[in-house]
Amino acid sequence: MADRPGDEQERSLAQLCRAFVKGFADRDADALGDLYLPSATVRLGDAEDSKGAVTVAPAVAIEDRMRLGLPLTVTVTGVVEDGWQAEVLVEWTVSGTSADGTEIDLAGSAVLACEERHGRWYIASERLRYS
What we know:
Blueprint: H1 13-26, H2 29-33, E1 36-44, E2 54-56, H3 58-67, E3 73-82, E4 85-97, E5 103-117, E6 120-130
Parallel strand pairs: 1-6
Antiparallel strand pairs: 1-2, 3-4, 4-5, 5-6
């Protein structure tokens, strides 16, 4: 993850979205981690209801996704930008056989709350839902 926002080159919101999609396609945990602010959180579970939802650090969520051993297909379905803040809507799927032989077929959506800091966009929080 970025240690000091502002030390890096500029990154547009579109570049952030492309890097997010590519990071999951490539299963690149380091590249994904660099997209989040150090204070970012990921909420796993129903984004509308706190029952059963768990909030973790991005590194924990990324590690959990990488543990499947399968690429996640991520598609950006919408972007709403308002000055230095934005919401990015994504849909994701993962299917196949994991390294331990488990058949996996999962899908869901997420909302990425993003912030621009010193000319560079980051993910400030992620709310993940399973379909």
